[in-house]
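idk why but the lab printer keeps eating my pages so im just putting this in chat instead. protein + calcium ion:
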Amino acid sequence: MRGIQLLTMLLIGCLWVAGHASRERGGRLRSQRRGKTAVGGGVEKKRRLQRLQQGPCSYTFILPELGALSDPRPLAEGAVVGRGAQRDAPTPGWEGPPTELRRMSPGKLQHLESAMRNTSQWLQKLEASLQLGAGRKGARLQHQAVQDQTATMLELGSSLLSHNVQQTHKLSLVEAKVLNKTSRIEVQLLENHLSTNRLEKELLLQTNQINRLHHHNSRLEQKVQMLESQQRGQLEDLKEGKNQLQAMVKSQMVAMESLERQLMVARRNSTALQMTQAQLMASVHSLLTMMSSTTVHRWRDCTDIFKAGHSTSGLYDIYITNISQPVQVYCDMETSGGGWLVFQKRFDGSVDFQRTWREYKMGFGDPLGEQWLGLEALHRLSLLGQYSLRVELRDWEGNQVYSQYDLFNLAGESHRYRLVARGYSGTAGRQSSLSSHGMAFSTPDQDNDNCDTCKCALMLTGGWWFEACGLSNLNGMYYSLGQNIRKVNGIKWHHFRGPSYSLQSTAMMVRPYDF
Ligand SMILES: [Ca+2]
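predcted complex ->
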C-alpha cells in the first residue's frame, strides 16, 4: 500500500513538473475537466480530459477514471485527488499519501497501479511530443532565420553584383576608349614615322643634289675664271687691233679724198669719150644690118629653128657638121615645149625597117612619113653639145606614153654607134627599156650584140641597140591591130606593154639639154 501511495504522488508531481516545464517554454497548458467531479457526491462515472496548447498545435489527453478507485467515501478521496491535481507545485515538506490511501484493498491498489502506469506512459508521450514540438519550432525558427539571412545575403549579393556589373560596364567603356585612343595614337605614330622617313629620303636627295650643284658650280666658276682670263687677253688684242684699224681708216680717208679729186678730173674727160663711143656703136649697128640682110639661115637643129620663131611642126632644112648639103628633117614644135628633131618615126608600117648596116648608117624613109634619119647624121648632131632624147609611144588601145633621157650621146661608126642614154624619166614604165651603160648598134648584117650564140637583129628583125637581146626594139616588124600580140619580133618597149606586144606608133627625137 505504501508503494501505491508513492506512485500516486509521483504521478501528481510529474503532472506538476510537466505543466511547469511547459509554462517555462512559453507554452500554455490548459487543463480542463469535463464532467462532474466527485466532489459534489455524484454517482455517475467521471472522465478527465487533459488539453495541451503548444504554439499553433493543441494536444488532448484522456486521463483514467478515478471513480472506480474511490471507496464508499469517494468524496474524501476525490477531494484529495482533486486537490492534488489542482495544485500548481508540490508542497515542500510533503510526507507521502494520506492515511486513507494506506487503508485501500490490494485490488484497488492494483487498479491504481495500472492507472499510474497508464498515466506515466501518457506523461512520457506528452514529454516526447513536447520535445518534438519544441524541436520542430526551433528548426522552423532556425530555418526561418536561415532563410531571412539567406535572403538578406542574396539581396546584398545581388546589389553588390549589380554594382559590380555597372562598375565592370563603366570599366569596359573606359577600356574601350583607352584602346581606341591608343590605336589612334599608334596610327598617328606610324604615319609620323613614315612621313619622317620620306622627309629623310627627300632631304638626302636634296642634299645630294645640292652637293652635285656645288660641284658643278665650282667647275663653272673655274671655267668662268678661265674664260675671263682668256677674254681679257682677247680684249686687249682687240683693242690693239682697233687702234690699228682706226689708223688705217684715217689713212684710207686721206686716200679717198685724193681719189675723189682725181675722179672729178676724169669725169670731165669721159664725156668726150662717151660721144666718140656712141658714134662707133652706130657704125657697128649699120654694118650688122647690112650683114643680116645678106646671110642664108644655116640651122643646126630644130631648136635653132624654134628659137628663130618657127613654132609649126613640119619639114625644115638643117646643116649638119661636115655635110655640105642641107638635111631635111621633121621638127616637132609641139611636144613638151617643141624644138624636137625627129630621127625615127613609125605609125603605119608603110616603110620596111629590115635594112642593112649601111642603110641604117645613111638613113631611109620619108621625113613626112615613116623615117630613119641615119646613124651618121645623128652622131654628128650629138657632137654639137649635150642632147636629150625623148621616145613617144602609143599602143593600139590609144594609150600615149613617153620615155625621156636627159643625157643622149651617140658614138661614131668606129664605136659601132654606141648609144648612151641616162637620166631616165617618163610614163612608159618605171624603169628604162634602154640599157643605161651603153650598147652598140646591130643590124642583120652586122652583129654587135651581147648574145654570143645568136644574132638578135636576125631574130628580132630590124637594126637596134640590142643587148642580149634587150628590152626594146622600135625597129622591129610592124604588126597591125589584131596581129600585134605575142610577137617577139614586133615593135616592143618592155616596160610599157611587155615583151611580146607590138606597138601602134613610135617617134624618137632629140633636142639640146639646155633648151
Ligand atoms: Ca650576137
